[in-house]
Design a protein that fits this description.
57 residues, 63% helix, elongated
């Protein structure tokens, strides 16, 4: 089970960085935020609960 699975089970699958403005895909802020969110999700997707348990010991 990945850490992303845990986060999504608790928080849902909505964007973690929700912008209240919809400037469209040309908005540089929105583009940067979505790129960062994708990188963070990939990192959490590859981090398993077993990995976390090893770090605690």
């Amino acid at each position: 089970m990945s850490f992303l699975d845990v986060i999504q089970a608790i928080e849902g699958t909505a964007s973690l960085f929700d912008c209240s403005f919809d400037h469209g895909p040309q908005c540089p802020n929105q583009r940067i935020i979505l790129q960062g969110e994708n990188k963070m999700e990939n990192y959490f997707r590859n981090m398993t609960l077993a990995d976390l348990a090893k770090e605690i010991q």
